[in-house]
Amino acid sequence: MEEIHLNPTDHAALDMLQEGRCTAAYIAEEHDYTRQNVRNRLNRLVEHGYIERVHKGLYELVEDPRHDK
After folding, report:
1. Pick the CATH number of 8-61 from 1.10.10.10, 3.20.20.80, 3.30.365.10, 3.40.190.150
2. CB distance 48 to 65 below 8 Å
């Protein structure tokens, strides 16, 4: 899969997911983003395997793409 380009929404979501599981609504509220924007970015991170959906609307970090392998 191609390398993902991270935008500010991705960085905010990844920062919050490092602290524990989050919902798109919570991330959006904390960072003044729209829920749809956050959901779109979370879905992209799921597609790349960096986070996973553990329950409807609840996400957790699998691997932070910002860290070199």
Report:
1. 1.10.10.10
2. yes
pLDDT of residue 2: 59
Where along the chain do its domains lie? Answer: 8-61
Report in angstroms the alpha-carbon separations of 11 from 27, 52. Answer: 11, 16
Strand order in the sheet with 58-61: 22-23, 58-61, 51-55
Where in the chain does DSSP place strands (E)?
Answer: 22-23, 51-55, 58-61
Mark the ranges of the chain whose per-residue pLDDT is less than 70: 1-2, 68-69
Task: Report how far apart, in Å, the C-alpha atoms of 43 and of each of 25, 47, 49 are.
Answer: 14, 6, 10
The single-letter DSSP state of residue 53 is: E
